[in-house]
């Protein structure tokens, strides 16, 4: 039998074949960049006009120099920057999972003796599903809670998940007064863009510079807005600003039972500062949480003594 070395495709057919391969390859590149499905890629749209109106309302209030417990500020947070828990069914990519975290949920659940109907806060909530430390408590233990996410574009994705939680579109301010701050977008690695430390961090992480303005309220202002000052579990993961936020919490006015706090390295100076600060404020360091088989966690677990 003779075998032909000629191409199996005619000249025009080969070009069409190459074009088809290029198109398919492009779709997979898009999938990798967006971390989403290839077909029917869609993101919830942000209403920029509405967002601008909210920011303008905040700017007017800032001109009056309001304090963190000013009634006009609390009302503005309630009306413009908070979404109430959703009653519609969940809209999750993986609806049958129980634990979406890297082991944090299980560790906290064990520490709290499988407590039912508690209250959580997750700061740095991202889209409310990917590596969520609190979705387990909401689905399995029937907790209420609050998800805080500053990026307004990501916040639309968070809203689309139909979490049974209060949603807050804000960063956590390290000062009592409200602010409007610069924020460098980076999906789950977004971070405020305030000083040289922030900018150096973005450079070290080799992230693209994509800065927007975001509202920023103190944790105490937000808690007043939702009438909740007792928290069973606080997940704090805000890409290197954790210690500053911890130092801003008025522990004499709020009760937080358990923390997981992201750290950089268990033995570095930043981690030691976090541990020292928490111990001075009545918390026992329990353990570091390195993660599980599917993902890495860099959290320290603390329990109120």
UniProtKB/TrEMBL annotation:
Q: Which SUPFAM superfamilies match?
A: S-adenosyl-L-methionine-dependent methyltransferases (SSF53335)
Keywords assigned = Membrane, Transmembrane, Transmembrane helix
Transmembrane portions of the chain = 15-34
Q: InterPro entries in the record, alphabetically?
A: EGF_Rcpt_Signaling_Reg, FkbM_mtfrase, SAM-dependent_MTases_sf
Q: Where is the Methyltransferase FkbM domain?
A: 123-285
Q: Per the record's keyword annotation, is Transmembrane included, yes or no?
A: yes
Organism lineage string: Eukaryota, Metazoa, Spiralia, Lophotrochozoa, Mollusca
Query: Which Pfam families does this UniProt record tie to the protein?
Result: Methyltransf_21 (PF05050)
Task: Tell me the superkingdom of the source.
Answer: Eukaryota
Q: What is the protein's given name? A: Methyltransferase FkbM domain-containing protein
